[in-house]
Write a structure and sequence with these properties.
This protein is an alpha/beta fold. The protein is built from 26 helices and 14 strands. The relative contact order is 0.07.
Length: 583
């Protein structure tokens, strides 16, 4: 096999060898020890006069592919026939990426294996090589459309250059060191974590022909939730060869029965285990169960972990995106630790978490050297105008930028949502000069700090539905205590009715923190997260009751000798203008 013997016409490939007709006569003339063929494509065993088989052709195919992807370079380019043949026997071929750095690493690995010195180290058959190329082709088609799932309304990033450089550096370290890396991207809801990750995956992974696969974590804690989705995508899209999967089906479906239908097999029936409870990852048994009872699940678990690692090795350089990783289940966390600590392959894992990674147990189980945390902050006020110009497609006035900056606090999701709402209400309008301007409302339309669009109110309400009715009812009182998202527990407890309510208040705090609706600021102070959760809660209180609660809060603050401005604020909200003016 060599380029001269390959004919391509109308996307049909044919192999030929026009010298075969004279082979028998040449053998008669030259004798049994004469070596036929072109030295540049000869495998070592043919040069040495050893037995040849189909793997001999695979070596020649490897040389041909080497020549194709490097623009005509041969792995061994010597003048004499003898030197070329000796190089095939003794020298390792150079990397194709030396000549063409853009060659995908997976293709480089295939070429290297095809050109292994010993035939036993090559692929067993041409069919196995075809499987690999089919999986690579499937991967390319998959990644080309995958960004639509990640971010269908992608727009250019604004003021995230430093963060992008940090992600790129971690990815390059993964590729250069051939070791798994974990990057944790943290930030508040709507700050742009997913957008940043999608931009990186699109530009630096997918556009470079490498694999990127995502899995979303689930609050139910079902075992291996994100990795089940990741492996389902890999299998369903044919990103690894079927022949590779066939030998590992039992190990995979033993831990992930949900994948059995995708692999066209019957899901294994769960075994009865006396005295033990298993949820994917084996859990500690009671003292009544002998230690040897752990041996089988431990062995099975590690075999499964090793199998998953092998899939990522087969996949080549890969980026995984774990969405909503605050609720990463215990089994997935154990698998992630295994991949980070035991792996020796280029796997880049990006986990998206909220703005308090220290409260995430699985993160605490990793050493500092096993994770990199990238904190994504809100956009500074200085870039809001540029962001809005990019978002709206036309210049915006400084007044427009100032209004949005005050309400959105630099959170891209809120910037876009509030801008959309104010355009709908007519507060923002496109001038004849082609820029967006602010139209100050008249007395009948007030632009207040309580502005929350119906869309945003609905989104926040869905988050609040995660907690019990009792906790939600108690937290509505906390939402009124400050104009912002913060509140002090002692003031809240008094507003609820006194010390007899402290236990219930603490239970509500614990539930809200667990559901990531509050963060602990220390000194008995908490804050809603995101901040507009407080507004959404307050909006659920009827106006008359809300005014009454504001007055009660003002009286409690007076008793506690609190900030006069805050007291005045509550009197104002209760409709008592005279008392408000006093403070």
């Amino acid at each position: 096999i060599k380029p001269e013997n390959i004919i391509i016409k109308n996307n049909v490939v044919k192999l030929t060898d026009f010298g075969l007709a004279t082979l028998m006569s040449l053998l008669a003339e030259k004798g049994d020890n004469y070596i036929f063929g072109t030295p540049s494509y000869m495998p070592p065993e043919q040069i040495a006069g050893e037995g040849i088989d189909g793997r001999t052709d695979l070596y020649a195919l490897g040389v041909t592919l080497f020549e194709m992807v490097t623009g005509g370079h041969l792995p061994f380019n010597y003048e004499s026939r003898h030197d070329i043949m000796m190089a095939h026997i003794d020298e390792e071929p150079p990397s194709v990426r030396t000549f063409e750095p853009s060659v995908p690493i997976m293709l480089e690995r295939i070429i290297n294996k095809l050109m292994a010195k010993h035939s036993d180290d090559r692929y067993p058959s041409a069919e196995a090589v075809l499987d690999l190329f089919k999986s690579m082709q499937a991967r390319q088609k998959f990644t080309q459309r995958y960004m639509q799932w990640l971010d269908p309304d992608a727009r250019p990033l604004v003021d995230r250059k430093a963060e992008m450089i940090e992600i790129e550096a971690a990815w390059q370290e993964t590729l250069e060191n051939n070791t798994p890396q974990l990057l944790v991207v943290q930030g508040d809801m709507g700050v742009g974590k997913s957008r940043l990750i999608a931009e990186f995956l699109g530009n630096s992974v997918i556009d470079k022909g490498r694999a990127a696969v995502a899995g979303r974590c689930d609050e139910t804690g079902a075992a291996y939730t994100p990795f089940s989705q990741i492996l389902a995508t890999i299998f369903d899209q044919g990103l690894v060869s079927p022949s590779f999967i066939e030998t590992k089906i039992d190990t995979i479906t033993d831990q992930m029965p949900s994948l059995a239908p995708l692999l066209n097999i019957e899901a294994p029936k769960p075994e009865k285990k006396v005295g033990a409870s298993f949820d994917g990852l084996w859990k500690t048994l009671s003292d009544r169960v002998p230690d040897k009872g752990l041996e089988a699940p431990i062995k099975s678990q590690w075999q499964f972990f090793a199998t998953v690692a092998g899939i990522f090795v087969e996949l080549g350089p890969t980026a995984l995106y774990l969405d909503d990783a605050d609720v990463l289940d215990e089994s997935s966390a154990a698998l992630l630790r295994f991949l980070i600590r035991q792996g020796s392959f280029p796997l880049f894992i990006i986990a998206e978490v909220s703005d308090e990674p220290a409260s995430t147990a699985w993160l605490n189980s990793l050493n500092d050297g096993e994770k990199t945390i990238l904190s994504l902050k809100p956009l500074p006020a200085t870039v809001i105008q540029d962001y809005l110009t990019n978002y709206l497609g036309q210049p915006v006035s400084k007044a427009v930028a100032n209004i949005v900056e005050k309400r959105a606090r630099g959170i891209p999701f809120y910037i876009e949502e509030f801008t959309r709402q104010l355009i709908e209400t007519g507060d923002f309008y496109l001038s004849e000069e082609g820029d967006w301007r602010y139209n100050p409302p008249d007395d009948s339309i007030s632009f207040t700090a309580d502005l929350v669009s119906p869309f945003l109110q609905s989104a926040l309400t869905r988050r609040l539905e995660k907690i019990s009715d009792d906790s939600r009812q108690l937290l509505t009182r906390a939402a009124l205590i400050e104009p912002g998202p913060e509140f002090y527990v002692d003031i809240w407890v008094e507003l609820l009715g006194g010390e007899n309510m402290r236990d219930k208040a603490q239970a509500a705090l614990d539930e809200a923190i667990q559901r990531r609706l509050l963060r602990d600021l220390g000194n008995n102070q908490y804050a809603f997260r995101p901040a507009d959760i407080a507004t959404a809660l307050a909006n659920t209180i009827p106006p008359e009751e809300r005014r009454k609660l504001h007055r009660q809060t003002a009286e409690i603050l007076i008793e506690n000798q609190s900030d006069p401005l805050l007291i005045g604020y509550h009197f104002e909200q209760s409709g008592l203008a005279t008392e408000s003016a006093h403070y």
